[in-house]
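Q: What structure does this chain adopt?
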Amino acid sequence: MLALALFLIVAAFVLHPILQPAAPEGTNNPDTNFLQARRASVLSALTDLDFDHATGKIGHRDYESERNQLVADGVAVLKQLDAADLTAPAIVNDLDARIEEAVAHIRKPESTPAVAHQFCSQCGAVTQLNDHFCAQCGFALDPRSESA
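A:
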């Protein structure tokens, strides 16, 4: 019984990639994979170069020339990705829309009921109902004073 269970687990593991539906076209394109891998390697090389310069492992003159070359390589890769229409602007636009929605939600004033205020009889400053002293002049407030 245990051997049969083990056999079924191994068979499922081996057959899983075969039984999966085919990936949509364009994701298995070798050119796409190469360009995206090249973009990742350029970004990684830039990060490493910046770190090496910051820690003093590489001189300023060498840093400038290497960085200029890596930036030029990165620009070339991005242009090739743009030409192949592989930058997925819909994803970027969706992300922008979600960010704008979150910002609008934060900026939107909350619809809370109006808070009743009272006024200091000494200086006329606006105070909250639960205040015992005026924040402006320090006058002791009468808790029974009228609300605005």
